[in-house]
């Protein structure tokens, strides 16, 4: 009987014990039990983000957190201007939010597959003194590429600009150090590296960001961060939270704490490196010039039909991978390495890809991708 495996960069696979935890009978959220649980998850989020700042949990997908961060730090009409850095669909979303709320903004539009360049940002901030805020995507899921947030944060500091980071496919997968790097607001969602169903969004908010937020009047009602901070003082939320997911979150964050972030970062990177070695051995091209370890984008060779490839992977082998977005739709497939996905899941998706590409007439030696991946694993055997 076929097994279902999800390799999409969100949603991702959810561990069985976490699913069972969420299947327990509904509990009311205005109780001491809920507040106890919420207190624990908030502390564990501090570990996840590596911050002593405020960790907030919103009910909504990751976009809710991004919108809340931008609109509360840069309320329209208060003289703020945002530089939106983007080289992919998700980065573009933060510029769309500025436009939707009439927040003045400029765009640093760079090539898909590359990371945002700190020296370009430096120049843009030097040339436009009105810019006081940056939005940057740490791991651009759509182009499977990485930006150097630590270096970008130094540039932002030099110009006194606030840094808001979309870490939706970064935190819990690749190194993220919110306090050490001096990031003002960093946010994520539940359905990517946190291996939960969609429906929760999280923010780490620094003291410097609160100074800005407190000076604004609060342009949002539902995702008003000041209300979330006020409720958090009592380990509570302003409105009905998705408490079933918060129960799952408790389970997931305990697992992450137990395994340790260093180990998680290592294993995510190991699976990404094995996949990249397999791609080269299968005579395929990597999409990104600056590849990220949470998701791998693969350029399909001429003659391979992308929708047929993905459909075959799903129907024949129960494996779901993602296609490309925007102008790379139909040309690229993406495989996630985040969360509940181990080295043997990684080998399984490589072998299925080999079989399907072989069937579609792409010239490769069957087993070449697997051998290359196994070689990477063998080199790290002691640490696996
Ligand atoms: C998935 C994703 C988003 C959008 O998050 P939603 O949870 O769909 O709102 C934004 N940014 C990045 C980098 C993502 O991977």
Description:
With 384 residues, the protein is an alpha/beta fold. The protein has 2 domains: 5-9 and 260-383, Aspartate Aminotransferase, domain 1; 16-259, Aspartate Aminotransferase, domain 2. The protein is built from 14 helices and 15 strands. The protein has helices at residues 16-22, 32-49, 62-73, 89-100, 118-127, 149-158, 178-181, 207-215, 225-232, 243-259, 261-281, 306-317, 343-359, 368-379; strands at 5-6, 54-59, 82-86, 105-109, 133-137, 139-140, 145-146, 162-166, 185-189, 200-205, 285-286, 295-299, 319-320, 322-323, 332-336. The strands form 4 sheets. A 7-stranded mixed sheet has the order 2-10-9-8-5-3-4, sandwiched between helices. The chain has a 4-stranded antiparallel sheet with strand order 11-12-15-14, covered by helices on one side. Helix 1 (16-22) packs antiparallel against helix 10 (243-259). The longest helix is centred in the C-terminal third of the chain and has 21 residues, at 261-281. The chain starts with a strand and ends in a 5-residue tail after the last helix. 48% of the residues are buried. The model has no long low-confidence stretch (mean pLDDT 97). The chain binds pyridoxal-5'-phosphate (PLP).
